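#lab-general

N.A. 3:47 PM
ok so I finally got the sequence cleaned up, no stray characters, all 171 residues accounted for. can someone with queue access submit it? mine expired

B.Y. 3:52 PM
send it over

N.A. 3:53 PM
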Amino acid sequence: MAALSLQDWLSLISTIAIVVALLFAGVQVREATHARRDQAAVAMLQSSQGEGWTHSMDAVSRIPPGLDAAQIDAQGEQAAAALVDFAVRLETIGYMVFSRLVSLEMVDDLLGGVILVFWSRAYGWVVRERVRTGNGKLFEWCEWLADRVGERRAMRGHEPAHLKHRGWRAR
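B.Y. 4:20 PM
back already:
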């Protein structure tokens, strides 16, 4: 076996250094992606917490499901205001799922029931508002998110967390 020259050794060391740097960069990118998802999950949780969210959800849940826009209007200004407030928050969450900043699984586990309750009350009103405003994109991510949650549950079923995870134990 022939001995390596100094130039061969330096070339080998340079190649190893490049490979190690590329591996390190790959690990850093992966870690940054995980950190971004974690930050997005925290942002989602913060937007779904607090008095405004709770007040809007309470008002939305008092609207009977399946009403048309005129029937929702008859519920009073508070009903429409709650639908708008809640929809604006869900728009952001829907787009976060679409952009893969947070997973559909996480959103469904935390908010899926609330999303479906909202959409069952808001649908007729949103359709009317889209026509009235000439904006077919109005609350589009709410509808998209409700559709995805509904599809996911239709395919996988849905078991409440207290039953699905009843065997969970702290580590």
